[in-house]
Amino acid sequence: MKRKDFLKLSGLSFGAYLLADLPAFAKVIDPQAALDRIDTSLKKELADVALNVAKSKGATYADVRIGRYLNQTIATQEKRVRGLQSTESYGVGIRVIADGCWGFAATDKVDKDNIAQATALAIAIAKGNARFMAEPVQLAPQKGLGEQTWATPIEKNPFEVPVGEKVELLLAANQSALDGGANFVTSNLFMINEQKYFASTDGSYIDQDIHRIWPTFTVTAIDRSSGKFETRDSLSAPMGMGYEYLTPGTPYKIDGVPVTLYKDRYDILADAATAAQHAKEKIGAKSVAPGKYDLVLDPLHLGLTIHESVGHSTELDRVLGYEANYAGTSFLTLDKWEAKNFNFGNELVNVVADRTQLGSLGAVGYDDEGVPAGKWDVIKDGILVNYQTIRDQAHILGLDASQGCCYADSWNSIQFQRMPNISLLPNKKSRKVADIIKNVEKGIYIVGRGSYSIDQQRYNFQFGGQLFYEISNGRIVGMLKDVAYQANTQEFWNAMADIADEEDYRLFGTFFDGKGQPSQVSAVSHGSSTAHFKGINVINTGRAIG
């Protein structure tokens, strides 16, 4: 695309972006500026200023995070660009323990004098907090790791791809949807690069370069004669990958399933064309009859149910009531874990927390407390066996180390407990999705996320989806609409009857998971294979009341 054509389409120039809400302290930058790098030796020198000041003023522990957070978002609608934004947020956050209490301060002035002043402020805040302390912070030990580096193993840096090329791809996807019969289409491309340097008085100096990407769209089809319309969102998953994710690969096909799916490569043009066809088909689809159904849930749908009912319910701060105002606490109280036999689900339900899985949104080398990434059981053979912890929570569970679940979404946000990847393990035996469907007499196959709700204890819930197909006597017989299912967490996970094997295993992701006050966002993936649940209550969301 020629520059004058791009400007004509967008009505914008690189110096006059159509801005959404900017992250705190973020500034708009030329896209080329995102390729600049900050010397690691300089970051170490600046970090040592904070650590030395903290120790000299009585801190028993200190850590410093020097962060450069790059975001680029492109938004289009039909044949035009709606918005283009490239931002950078750069600064330093210092966290200390003094007189047994936490203190935190941050500055966007990245020089020795301002870092020293911010560190002194963090010390003063900690000592002020100590006057109201109920008990001192108990920090799990973490051996100093010296100088370490970790980077998302990308093949193609999204920030190196010309903006015009990315715009052309989105506009081509829009055209593909319009050619397929869509009346409206919007598309977006989100790219994030976190360049994070962590140092602590434990003796760790950790430099990380983390990438995430999410291409997405929504198509709308309208029946002009009736005025009815339906939508279909993309079947992409946000990933911890580079721009190579948008290089089409071999699509994933399941025998007897009329949907093209994707694994570690995504074809946005093909998906957009198919989405238009699906949206048109949904208009005339049969409205579901309420009742009990077996559900066969694709990973692009099941991931959200895992996120809400398993991921959030096993966050230890929710369990303890420390986190309550933002989306509630948890029914999985400590007494259930202490019993060692609490039945979360049946023996098929095996859930792991994992910050090491490459390609996932939650993959890192180290968390924001310098703890190496790990993997552990959360639900084992249906029994609750663990939670998610950080360094000042580990002692509550009798652990001698953190599980590495600490994260802050910016240098000026204080790090706290955030969800790692929470994933349902696949069947160890050979088990294909087509074989699972053959065993269903009356059921619904669901793909993609839709509207949902869950209560403040992460217990009672309702989930919709993107695509619904009726299963009758072991085969898919047609599309349905107006589908949502209701259950409670224990009832649902005890109804799991089957799960496909590793060949079907795929990642679902949430790119903007909110938590905390002030609110922070994080990105997390949930892996699973297609799973079968028996006798779940299905309601019709399209019925008029009264």
TrEMBL record:
Gene3D superfamilies: PmbA/TldD superfamily. Residues 1-26 form the signal peptide. One of its GO terms (molecular function) is metallopeptidase activity. This is TldD protein. Residues 157-245 form the Metalloprotease TldD/E central domain. Belongs to the peptidase U62 family. One of its GO terms (cellular component) is cytosol. Residues 290-519 form the Metalloprotease TldD/E C-terminal domain. GO terms for biological process: proteolysis. Residues 62-126 form the Metalloprotease TldD/E N-terminal domain. The lineage of its organism: Bacteria, Pseudomonadati, Bacteroidota, Sphingobacteriia, Sphingobacteriales.
